[in-house]
Write a structure and sequence with these properties.
Distance between the termini: 95 Å
Shape: flat
Largest sheet: none
Number of strands: 0
Strand content: under 5%
Structural class: mainly alpha
Helix content: 55-70%
Mean pLDDT: 76
Number of helices: 8
Order of helices and strands: HHHHHHHH
Radius of gyration: 36 Å
Low-confidence stretches: 1-24, 30-36, 44-49
C-alpha cells in the first residue's frame, strides 16, 4: 500500500493532458528543418521552373520532319554561340586548350598588319586591271610593299607568341606545336570576323 503525504501530488497527476509538450515541439521543428535543408523558393522562381504545356504530337510525317529540323537548327545555333564565346566544350579541336587561348589573347590585344590584307588585296586587284599603266604600277608596288610589311609584322608577332608561351608554360607540359602559325593566320583576319570572338580589348596587357 502506497502512502501519500498531504499536499503532494504525483507527477502524472500534475501534468495536464491538454498541455503541449515543449520537448516534442522542439523535436518536430528540428525534423522539419533537417528535412527541408534549403530556403523556400519564391513564388516567381517556382513558377519559372514549372514546365509549360507540351506541344501536341505531330500528326504527319512531314510535320515531324519539320520539327526535327527546327530542333537540330536550334541546337546548332546554340552550339555556335557557345563556341563563339570561347566555351571549350563546343570549340573545334584546333581552338581548344590554354595554349590556343593564350595565342588568341596575344593576337587580339594588338593591331596587326594582317588585318588589312583583304582591303589591300582588293585595292591592288582592282588597280591591276586599270587601263592606265601608271595605276597598274602603283597597285603592284602597293601589294609588294604590303607583303613586305606583313612579313616583318608576322616575325614580330611570332616572337611575342613564343615569349608569352614560355612565360605561361615554362615546364613544357603543354604542346605548343603549331601555335605560331595559328596566331599568324588569326592575325590576317578582320577582328570582327575572328572565331572564337576576341575576349581581350586592344592594347590589353596579356
Amino acid at each position: 500500500m502506497k502512502l501519500r503525504l498531504p499536499g503532494r501530488r504525483d507527477a502524472a497527476e500534475t501534468t495536464d493532458p491538454g498541455t503541449p509538450d515543449a520537448s516534442s515541439d522542439l523535436t518536430d521543428q528540428q525534423l522539419k528543418a533537417a528535412g527541408k535543408g534549403r530556403p523556400t523558393p519564391k513564388r516567381s522562381e517556382a513558377q519559372g521552373r514549372r514546365p509549360g504545356p507540351l506541344p501536341p504530337p505531330p500528326t504527319t510525317r512531314k510535320e515531324a520532319y519539320r520539327r526535327m529540323r527546327e530542333q537540330q537548327a536550334s541546337r546548332r545555333a546554340g552550339a555556335r554561340q557557345a563556341a563563339a564565346r570561347g566555351d571549350e566544350s563546343f570549340l573545334p579541336a584546333r581552338d581548344r586548350g590554354p595554349v590556343r587561348r593564350t595565342v588568341r589573347d596575344v593576337v587580339d590585344s594588338r593591331r596587326n598588319v594582317g588585318s588589312w590584307f583583304l582591303v589591300i588585296a582588293g585595292v591592288a586587284l582592282v588597280g591591276t586591271f586599270a587601263p592606265n599603266q601608271v595605276l597598274r604600277g602603283y597597285a603592284s608596288l602597293l601589294l609588294f610593299s604590303f607583303f613586305a610589311l606583313l612579313i616583318v609584322d608576322s616575325v614580330v608577332l611570332s616572337r611575342k607568341i613564343k615569349r608569352k608561351l614560355a612565360e605561361r608554360f615554362p615546364d613544357g607540359t603543354e604542346k605548343t606545336r603549331g601555335a605560331v602559325w595559328y596566331g599568324i593566320s588569326r592575325a590576317t583576319m578582320i577582328r570582327r570576323w575572328r572565331f572564337p570572338k576576341p575576349e581581350v580589348p586592344l592594347g590589353a596587357d596579356v
